[in-house]
């Protein structure tokens, strides 16, 4: 199955106060690390949606096998960013049978987890803290719903509403980086 990936990295990181996409963990910017793991897991093409800090994010992705989707309306929220990435995927990659939706602020997720998501029959979601979340893989039948998202509501409602969905546990996915306290937890402080 030809499975693409959409990496959401457009946000302004207002709670953190600096671009979390560029936070360095284990010698690599979070955005670059996420893209590397997704590439190693076999997703292609990889579309990265940028907005805030787009120029700096492009620099950390210079050698990465990605297509940049510049989302001018990134302030509208995650749903609008996912819609922009999905619209680019539908327009430029009609061969894609499914797509991963991933965030760039879950540094403890591994290449192996992304590979498990790719190898499962979609829809498939990561499960942690007793709920379905991203990263998740959506089948082509969901593309129209993804392209229609607006505002700050992402795809979580699509995951929660799915009757038949594969769930792949990843308790390490619960740590996402939104605040300085989250960064301290990541570094074990």
UniProtKB/TrEMBL annotation:
CDD domains: GT_2_like_f
InterPro entries noted in UniProt: MobA-like_NTP_Trfase, Nucleotide-diphossugar_trans
Identification of the protein by name: Nicotine blue oxidoreductase
Gene: nboR
Species in which this protein is naturally found: Haloferula sargassicola
Alphabetical list of Gene3D superfamilies matching this protein: Spore Coat Polysaccharide Biosynthesis Protein SpsA, Chain A
Domain (MobA-like NTP transferase) ranges: 5-161
Domain of life assignment: Bacteria
């Amino acid at each position: 199955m030809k499975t693409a990936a959409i990496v959401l990295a457009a946000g302004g990181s207002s709670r953190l106060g600096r671009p979390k996409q560029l936070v360095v963990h284990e010698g690599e910017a979070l955005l670059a690390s996420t893209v590397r793991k997704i590439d190693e897991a076999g997703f292609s093409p990889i579309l990265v949606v940028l907005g805030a800090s787009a120029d700096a994010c492009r620099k950390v992705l210079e050698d990465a096998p990605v297509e940049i989707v510049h989302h001018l309306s990134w302030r509208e929220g995650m749903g609008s960013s996912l819609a922009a990435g999905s619209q680019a995927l539908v327009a430029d990659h009609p061969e894609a049978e499914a797509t991963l939706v991933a965030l760039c602020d879950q540094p403890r997720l591994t290449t192996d987890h992304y590979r498990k998501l790719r190898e499962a029959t979609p829809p498939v979601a990561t499960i942690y803290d007793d709920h379905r979340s991203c990263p998740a893989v959506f089948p082509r039948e969901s593309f129209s719903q993804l392209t229609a998202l607006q505002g700050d509501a992402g795809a979580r409602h699509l995951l929660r509403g799915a009757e038949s969905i594969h769930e792949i546990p990843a308790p390490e996915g619960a740590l996402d980086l939104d605040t300085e306290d989250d960064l301290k937890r990541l570094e074990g402080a």
